[in-house]
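Sequence in, structure out. Go.
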Amino acid sequence: MTTQRQRTGPAQNADERAMLEGWLDHHRQTLAWKCEGLTDAQLRTASVPPSELSLMGLVRHMAEVERGWFRTVLVGDGAGPLHRGDEERDGAFRLTEQDTWAEAFAAWQAEIEVARRYAAGFALAELSHGRSRFTDEPFSLRWIYTHMIEEYARHNGHADLIRERIDGVTGE
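Output:
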């Protein structure tokens, strides 16, 4: 990884919303940083066969996660999946030679921008328009932010291991 210039840490003395948004952005930037400087072939490299987990797959998965939580759950806009069918939960990880980093990255960034725009219209305690598929209960924006931070943190750990496998580079 060549630089951390695009990564910013969250403010240490911010209010709750700024802190949550800061940590979420930090983790979004961390995933991008872990993918920086690699070829499409390297980004498609699976972690350990038979796993299909790859850096490009993680980015595609996170585009799906952003879309699901902010579009489908928070505002209930009915946006369907990007890289999978409704019954295929892991489709984002199934890559072909035709899948490109440029396409995956652009879709992910577009979903992040939509997520930011939609979240800006909600207070932290405000409840989502969509509901849990398990409990039929709505979620607060605070819960969604916290879950998204956890989701990125977990997958950034995966990304660090995959990147180390590809070229030996590790990072914090």
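Check: Residues 1-5 have pLDDT under 50 and may be disordered. The two ends are 11 Å apart (CA to CA).
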